[in-house]
Structures
1.
Amino acid sequence: MPATPLPPSVETAGGSKSSGPLGALENASSAAILRVLRVTLHTGFALLLAVALARTLMAGGSLRWVWAGAAVVLAAAYLAGTVVEKRHAEGRLVFNPRRYALPWLGVVTGLWAFLLAGSADFAWLAFPIFFLHLHLLPRRPALLIIALMTAAVIASQWAVSGAPVPHAAAVVGPVLGAVFSVITGLAYAALYREAENQRRAADQLRRTREELARSQHEAGVLAERERLAREIHDTLAQGLSSIVLLGRAAGQSLTDGDTATASGQLALVQQTAADNLAEARSFVRGLTPPQLEGTSLVEVLRRLCDNTEAGAAASGVPLRCRLEVDGEPQELPQTVRVTLLRAAQASLANVREHARATAAVVSLAFLGTEVTMDVYDDGTGFDPSVAEGATDAADGSGFGLRSLRERVTALNGLLAVESAPGEGTVVAIRLPVEER
């Protein structure tokens, strides 16, 4: 397996880098096992080194302080490697020790071999060092080095015994220890890989969830922006446009000396401004349009037709507008009522401002599971494909049809616009409603 940071550490394997409860749950079992193995490995190394050092000092000899010094250097090197790697795994150290893993392993192994040459008591340190080779080296080189180290342990025990041939116990013991270390090390490596896979999967899931949350937030912002654009276009913009037209008509009436007409036009300006203010307040609070509060859709559309006719007359446009109702009126869902009202407002505003029509008819039909509304005018007409494609015009023309189509589509309804230059216009809407 590829080289990894210095000594095995549960933080690297198990997931101090995994954030969130999901990553913690996924890695908990593997991390616990890795932690036990790691602590056992480091504790075993320390105990074996301490016992070997004590036996060497008690044995006496002129070189015992040389071996003691080498043992202290080995302990310091081993401890330094573990501490540096652990801090890097926890994110407390920017320095990455990965590139120094193999030199560090070479120093530890070399110091062990030097101590083994001086005293066979250091032979048993080979077993925890086996784990380091299995963890840091590819499998075949690791097994080869473990075999050589095992042979060195057997040779040291044979040299101490003074026998002409090594005893069976001196061979079987190190070999069994090496086999056990290899099996345990391979199991540790499998757990390490699994923990790493879980950590990466948890990190990927966390990033995916963050990206999903960000994309949902952006989608929500765009949707809210579209909703605001529709509401402003269908309410405030239309009202302000009416105020501008009425104001111009009132100014012309005053210029002509017709104060009575101007007074009526200014009264309509005030009423339109008051209606717009109510719409704005309701719009900011996200409430029902004020026209629909405490009344039916039929009554609201009838008043809308009357106001459209009066506003056109005040602007000097001879427009007749009426409402026709087919079927027994029924209570409609609030979303359907709002959509039909906004559609009628936008359509009649277009009739007043652009169509140069003399007659407009709003036809509302209740069909049980569906409700339809057609807005007809006998004006100059237009090309619907061109109008809907003009959504980027500087004056916002063409946005009304797109906005209306989005409203209707959101309720699984159908919108059709039939018109041609010089032939008038019909805006037809069909919306599904729950059968009562």
Note: Residues 10-214 form one domain.
2.
Amino acid sequence: MTSAYRALRFTSFAERGAWMRAAADLIETEVDEVAQIVTLEMGKPIGQAKSETLKCARIMRFYASNAEGFLAYEPLDDPSSVNASRAGTRYEPLGVVLAVMPWNYPLWQVVRFAAPALMAGNTGLLKHASNVPQSALYLDSLFKRAGFPAGAFQTLLIGSAQVEAVLNDERVRAVTLTGSEAAGRSVASIAGHNIKKAVLELGGSDPFIIMPTANLEKAVTTAVTARTQNNGQSCIAGKRFIIHADVYDQFARLFTQKMEALVLGDPSDLATQVGPLATESGRSDLAELVNDAKLQGATILTRGSIPDGPGWFYPPTVITDLHDGMRLVLEEAFGPVATLYRAESREEAVRIANQTTFGLSSSIWTTDQGDEDYFVDTLDVGAVFINGMTVSYPELPFGGIKDSGYGRELAAAGIREFCNLKTIWNA
């Protein structure tokens, strides 16, 4: 690990960029094969699996082109103010970084760490989810085949119980985790004990707020996609739909119709829009949340139960008439279950939006500038998307607050997370 770091650290940005572009070329060329692996392992519809694969190539090229500028020496405008002839800061890699990654985006989640980490001169160790070993092994070989020094990126086929030993190893200098709140608390505790840098991207229960001036047809169509992308198993999915009373009934009717029309089936079939959940336990957890809401008086507008037949399917479900005592109100529903809330005002919409312990992202639908400014100012989240669904772009920082974690991925902020910001002062 450390020898690979020493080899990579002192290569040029041009060399690393050439290798990163080669990795992008490889994953694009192999997109059909790689997408089939993803669909087989965790049930993502094949069209979405291909899109995820190609998105990885995009972020590789983004950091290949921009890493040097993001990490360039930053001179102090007036060095005489600190009694120097020259002063400034530079970014240097930390060393070996452990990445503990989830199964729901088995390629993208890893590559959005690996691309900036490797371009900064760090080396990566991947502990991937146990149900996506083929995806993990593909990534293990990808960067080496692209030309990076042997050992620059390695997959560890280990269980969760072994993460602590790896993180305790003095050669590992930092950790990034995308996963559950419980996993985040555990890893953060270990990292804190060892005084090692950590970035956590945890769960989300993102609000999707619709105001009276919204383009309702576009909002409904986007809401369906936001809730059911990746079979509903996405931390940034719109999960809680908070609709102003003036348009609530119309939105609920249209949204329910579109959710009912989605094609549930074999994820390898291009016609399928919603496939099975990735794990049996995940489906059981989702069903428990829905059943708890039912028992406490929630109204099921469509479906809401495990279907007969093979496969870990859970149908697109819409629920309303929720109240604060229900688990579904506060916990993350990791599957295609949408909850609808009626709000009489923008103030009530924000109260509902902020009532969970999560604070990842949000989606606001309005053409009123006053409403737009109000929501941007008052939502406790890491991002606000206006008249569109949350998407992670290489060009924009991504991350949350509260129980959704800390630190940022992507953009300049993401590559700098695992760098030492070194001050240089010259008399």
Note: The mean pLDDT is 97.
3.
Amino acid sequence: MARLSRAEAQERNRARVVDAARAEFAERGFRDAKIDTIAQRAELTRGAVYSNFPGKRALYFAVLAELAERAVAPSNPQRGTNRREALGALARAWVTSVGHDPLARDFLPEVAAEEVTRRPFTQLMKLDALLVSLALEAVEPVVTPPGSPPPRLVRLAETVLTTLSGASGLAAAAPGFVEPFDVISACERLAGLDLNDWWATPPGAAVRDDDRPWSPPTVVDLVRGSEVTPDEDGVVVVLGLNRLAAVEEAVRADVPVTLAMVTATPAELAPLARLVVAQVCAGLREAFPVRAWPRLRVVCDETGALAAAAGVPAVSDETETAVRVERGRVVARAEGSGAGHAVSAGARARTG
């Protein structure tokens, strides 16, 4: 038998830890689960567990993220052809997702426990709302009078996600209280809610010329749940987990956008990001026709490889950088507040 490389051995041990943790959390619950017991289940040392995960919470997020990412989609999803149908289908997908799994009952309390998880979770939910909004706007375009500000459905999407997340929380805290069919019906009726939502153009950051080769790695697009190499012309926005809402500034210019989510603490916060985005994207793929799936690509850039390809070698949870790619080269960049809009608007102007 061929000897495993160091990387292969690490990956094998990580998988064993995650499998053991899933069994431990399912049997004892998050609160009563013990790292020592997880190590015993995995037939590894306590040190081997901590070499892969900084703590029990990070391991818990990783377990839930893998459940969300590996969920088997129905072979013949009943996708909606208008907002009402699509929101009903999204709600049906949600109430059968990992969010309603008993294993997830401690998720929201753990997120709420500390500011270090609350801030990125808020931004991740804003990203989820943008993705739902883009799908809603595509499946049934918003009609407004000429001269009106650009309409959007982000606030409607936030209301839908509030309803679904609340239902998940109650399903965990008060089993039997929530009737899933009522949740689905409520979300269908939210389709007609008019919140007078529109998008205001933000002030743009300064854009400077650049000239470097663009050689991105192959990454997983969480929106479509598949690997992709983002090597075509477009905009790449590198955002820390505390700045994710800023991606809307790039998206509204209607150019191809890839979002690279980065964090200074990937061992704990990257699984949280994967979980929150994967759950809603799995629902979008079930609920909306392919033509309505958001054009936005979302990548959890745990290693920082995509950010480095864009010329951002050092990242933090406050990172906000955007670059424009043309014909295999990075040709422009902007940094700081408004970077995504500034670079995307420039790309839109160049393409007409």
Note: The two ends are 59 Å apart (CA to CA).
